[in-house]
Amino acid sequence: xxxxxxxxxxxxxxxxxxxxxxxxxxxxxxxxxxxxxxxxxxxxxxxxxxxxxxxxxxxxxxxxxxxxxxxxxxxxxxxxxxxxxxxxxxxxxxxxxxxxxxxxxxxxxxxxxxxxxxxxxxxxxxxxxxxxxxxxxxxxxxxxxxxxxxxxxxxxxxxxxxxxxxxxxxxxxxxxxxxxxxxxxxxxxxxxxxxxxxxxxxxxxxxxxxxxxxxxxxxxxxxxxxxxxxxxxxxxxxxxxxxxxxxxxxxxxxxxxxxxxxxxxxxxxxxxxxxxxxxxxxxxxxxxxxxxxxxxxxxxxxxxxxxxxxxxxxxxxxxxxxxxxxxxxxxxxxxxxxxxxxxxxxxxxxxxxxxxxxxxxxxxxxxxxxxxxxxxxxxxxxxxxxxxxxxxxxxxxxxxxxxxxxxxxxxxxxxxxxxxxxxxxx
Length: 426
Known about the structure:
By secondary structure, the protein is α+β, with helices and mostly antiparallel strands. It is 25% helix and 24% strand. It contains nine helices and 20 strands.
């Protein structure tokens, strides 16, 4: 009887332990926790930045979404956190554009960035996350938005297919940089953008990231741009907020009178089917809402035109008709025949080299492992003596080399018409 009673006590004890201790302790795998979500209420009338209570970690990813309506005053009107519909007189204090835009900041000395209705943020540094309305002019403010922030679980990325590995491993003659180098120009600044994969699961823009990295090398090791003066934005680091930050804040803060600016973009373009305007598509861009999530060429050229630079060169390996190639369009919409430069006013110091005309598509050069336009852009810089000793570019000479080469390969290999364009100062 005593033995039976003892066994009963032991059995009860084991059952109690099973009830209290998670099964995965015995299985050798950690217990999982529900992903925490931080909810922050941000008032339009608040004078100070609202601390979310979350300390973001450098390199970690976070999903930020916002909803609600607010107003900076009777003359500004009510808008959502994207600021769309805000009166032009109620402009932004921290970021150029709508004063009713929701903005964020990491740390008390961080650079403000656009959030709007939501972004996926890869934290560039560690620190507390703050929110605020972008407004400068605030009279009789009312309303608030609710911001929800949660970390995105990091999962190891699957290895690329064998075919993709073979393509990305392709080497060409331009991958080996020329030996000659221009004199270092401390007043030369560049923004280099390559977006290959998009949050909205748009078609891949093949070779865009590797092209951007190679352009970066040519700028710093051949053309004389200091490495610290080059901003490179790729994939998730090239969201709409990054475009606004670097074109409208970083460049004006750094470029001095007489300086040089180089802009390179490789990725998708998109048309606004209502207005006919052309847009660059950031990592978080959505062709269905391109006016709200894209970065228009008009906006970019206006920002560049305000700089005191002696010369600004823009190279666009993209297209904007929505007919394919490196262009996308809202589902159900028809591609447009666009005159990209028709509605744009370029400042006298801006020259634009683009991959194709408005109704065409921009192709890749698969056997070389590059975009077709980018390949001949860099080959011209390497072989055609178009870089002068001071680092300035003989733009017309470079274009005269690029245009027939791109036309020939596009016609010969793809049975396609692709005619690069030159716009701006001659």
